[in-house]
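Q: Sequence in, structure out?
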Amino acid sequence: MEEDKKAGNQFEGKDVYVKDVFNDIAPYYDKMNDIMSVGMIKRWHKFMFKKAGDITGFSVLDVGTGTGELAFISARKVGPGGRVTGLDITPAMLEMAKQKVGDLDLPTEVEFVIGDALDMEFGNDLFDLVTSGYMLRNVTDIQKAVNEMYRVLKPGGLAVVAELAKPRNRVIQWGHKVYLNRVVPFWGRKYDKGKVIDGKQPAYDWLTSSLEGFPYGPEMLGIFRNAGFTDAECYVRSMGAVNIYVARKPGKA
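A: Exactly. Output:
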């Protein structure tokens, strides 16, 4: 039953492997995201913040912030009275995020911190909004990661999480499988050069294998509800390739 709690593609040394993968791909992470999403990633992010609503003056935490894209959107939307924190376990990704800040005119500062999504060094009930993008496949215990999001949210606070998924329509599912198994590795080889990391697999092969056994749709909503979230909803985007989960912590904001 412990395996069910962790969910997704789990293996010994995954935490170290994933960290090494993202340290390795940090310089071209944003470029590959745009290529792999066929330019749709900005629309997914726009939809996430539409669901978040008016967040002026909010305290926001972006978990698994990577190169900071969601954190930067949050900073623009919270305004000078808000506060934004981006947390990630990968130093190289955070370095890229910090480098990008210099080219941005943000109304409030983003604080980037190194930390583990499974054991965040924040107190309880601190943030009005928690965001996360494409991070849950990479953790060793999905339920624990969602539990942590719940813990650090204020009562009445919202979690808005984007993740990859698999289309349920068989025809679309076939095309999606071809895309992940052939097109993504093709583009990935241009950047990761097929370099095997930690004796396992190249970075962009992980994208495909990370979806093995990964919960999505109703299964993922169950994980959010197990953590204590209410009003949990799943929004299917890009014909099922991406799901956006919106869940509220009960209580008054």
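The two ends are 35 Å apart (CA to CA).
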